[in-house]
Amino acid sequence: MVEIGILAPVAGVIGLIFAAVTFVGLKRQSAGNDKMIAIGEEIHLGAMTFLKAEYQKLSIFVVVVAGLLAYSFGWQTCSAFVAGALSSALAGFIGMKAATKGNVRTAAAAKDHGVAAALQVAFNGGAVMGLSVASLGLIGLGSLYFVFKSDSNAASIISGFSMGASSIALFARIGGGIFTKAADVGSDLVGKVEAGIPEDDPRNPGVIADNVGDNVGDVAGMGADIFESYVGAMVASITIAATMTEATMGELFGGVTREMLMSMFIGVSIIGLFVSFIGIAV
Q: In degrees rounded to 5, what are phi and psi of residue 144?
């Protein structure tokens, strides 16, 4: 029987390769005329600049909390926390990269080929982040499970990964939401009220900030949030299996061992990832 702690990271790597191939295919799509390309690049640059600034601030928080965890619970939980935080941040970064490149290409596809072509481009852009979220989660949790499965505190250590993911998701979601709403209100007040420029008109510089905010809040923030939920569901299931009494295990699952029960939930996620491959390809 293949060790689930090995199979999960391998499946995650395959998922990241699939996401990379999808992203390359997305970038090969037409980005439209020069004006569309210029506006798209401004949105992309603004989004990546915000993300860089946000992650710089969050890195301080991660270092401080990691130090406290190392002092209180040991290096294992600290390492899991840092791995979770990095994975969550990377999921948001990949999603932002794909979204800002896919936005203008979706518009170009709609302009040149109609709604069906635009839907396909948009779907592929979203698939990049979706695959990255699932793949990074499997790589992180699978690796931790493989290393610490025999440790008596395995559930506590693996929970550190979920804590790291949740920490980044919290700030990314809130920070992105504040930015996008501030940009939206500011753009409307200055553009429509003071200058008389129609809403979403590219002549209004605030519209660029508004679109940057949409990507920051609804892509990077959402990506980290989904990653946290995905990881949290698996970690909660593993924790329940790890802390279940022998009597309860025997009553509910018969001859299933604790290790098999803990790994079962990771196995379900692996199946889900490969089913997603089929859905995206078809």
A: -65, -40
Task: Locate 58 and state its tokens.
Answer: 């969050």
Contact 233, 272 (CB under 8 A): no
Interatomic CA distance for residues 280 and 123, integer angstroms: 9
Can you give the pTM of this predicted structure? 0.86
Query: Is-contact 154 148, C-beta < 8 A?
Result: yes
What's the start-to-end Cα distance of the chain, in Å?
A: 30
Q: What count of residues does the chain have?
A: 282
Q: How many distinct structural domains can be found in the chain?
A: 1
**More confident call, 108 vs 154:** 108
Amino acid (1-letter code) at residue 249: M
In degrees, rounded to 5, the angle at the alpha carbon of residue 125 between the alpha carbons of residues 122 and 129 is 135
E strand map for 141-214: none
pLDDT tens digits, 200-211: 676 777 777 778
Q: By residue range, what is the domain housing residue 234? A: 4-281
| Residue 207 burial (10 A CB sphere; 0-12, 13-18, 19+) | buried
Tokens 């993911």 correspond to: 165
